[in-house]
């Protein structure tokens, strides 16, 4: 029973703390459980500075350019580049912190998140559950950017990149189910998601998720389809290779045939140019030649009948 009362009191304190911080405009930060967190304020411009966790516990001091962690907190906090570093956040580390620099106070609310881890493949849909009572509006955040802001009057404002992909149930205010559904998940959707209601003053339950987006894996059907495509591609490659080979062979044969024809023609022309005259002469010249060759005696006889111009020597 005592544990239940402690839980109720702790929840009430957190709600009051967040409502007060929202009304006063106190900035807030968040960190996942067991993760480090660096407080944003820097002490390098301070002569004297101090970090406190309210209601008034001093965590570290800064003086003469030296940062010192309070005794007993060395395992939880340290100074790094003039910033206060929470080494590994625990659930009890959430709350209101103050930084005082030269008498000027700056406040910060730290939220330590216990997040549920979700995994989804690209292009699939994912639903992140969130429930709340008597909410007037709901807002989902991705890291620090808005995913969807939905009011009871029906007003819907999707965040950049989530248009027509982020949605809630139409009767969410009636049922208290403010679960977010993201369709056609992208790689860029990975990260931290948080659910708030009533102008981000109240956390939904569950409140935070870490979404991991994996590359799409092929199912057996896709593998079969892929195998078929590969087989078709191989067949087409072989066919095209055969066609190319046949085409090249035909071209080579045509080239060889043309070359042989040209060689034969050149050889015939050469033989014709070197052929003996009788072989190239027509019938008539051959007859004349033969008559000249076959009648040398006649030519001699005619030569004998000619008067001689030689006179005897007296």
Task: Describe it.
- The longest helix is centred in the last third of the chain and has 54 residues, at 220-273.
- This protein has six helices and 18 strands.
- The chain is 34% helix and 32% strand.
- Among the domains are: 2-113, Immunoglobulin-like, CATH 2.60.40.10; 116-214, Immunoglobulin-like, CATH 2.60.40.10.
- It is elongated, with a radius of gyration of 52 Å.
- The termini are far apart.
- The protein has 314 residues and is an alpha+beta fold.
- A hairpin with a 4-residue loop joins strand 13 and strand 14.
- The strands form four sheets. It has a six-stranded mixed beta sheet with strand order 1-9-8-3-4-5, with helices on one face. Strands 10-18-17-12-13-14 form a six-stranded mixed beta sheet. Strands 2-7-6 form a three-stranded antiparallel beta sheet, with no helix packed on it.
- Residues 261-274 have a biased composition (Basic and acidic residues).
- It is found in: Cell membrane.
- Residues 120-212 form the Ig-like domain.
